[in-house]
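Follow-up to my post from last week.
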Amino acid sequence: MPENQLFPAVLLFGYPGSGKGTQGVVLGEMPNLLHLAMGDIFRALDKESDLGKEFLSYSTKGLLVPDDFTVRLWKQHVDGLAASGKYDRDYHVLLLDGIPRTPAQVDLLKPLIEVKKIVHLVIENEEALVARLSGRAKKSGRPDDADPDVIRKRIAVYKEETSPVLAGYDAALLANVNADQHPLGVLRDVADVLSQCVSGKI
Ligand code: ADP
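User reply:
Got it. Predicted complex:
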């Protein structure tokens, strides 16, 4: 695929509970930004299907789904959005939330996306994350939010498997945003970063 055929993308990074989803949903309302959350794509699978069961077998333990399955499903989803006219690669910048999450996923996505910016939502207080995710468990209805041990496992997996992803990209792409503040403050800071890097598109 020629370079100009790559999907332009901004990556949203941060611990589970750092506010990626909250920010992503709001920012996805901006013209030209299309928010894609990998967790949402997985959760839209039919729970009774083989794929849905496979997803749950990992997510309920706080583990990552295997890389090939993840990126294949992501690509299928994007192709589906393009086919139905909801995604136009010449118009949209993808706001990717929760993918890539391993160095192997970075490699699998390399022939598909052009990373314009990486927004890293930085949290210092990890224990606050456990409280935050447990607190939303009722509303989210997610089994992986209901169990503090699974939440701790997700945090550990983020540290071990996902953090190394950041080091693999050019440091100039990285923007750290303090996520230990009110969501509106986070939104202001993220919008500031994005308005500079995709301003021609917004
Ligand atoms: P959170 O960021 O709160 O952990 P997500 O909704 O992003 O929540 O992900 C929920 C679960 O979905 C993960 O714990 C994992 O099992 C699976 N998942 C999501 N994104 C990926 C990914 N890129 N690679 C592998 N598994 C993923």
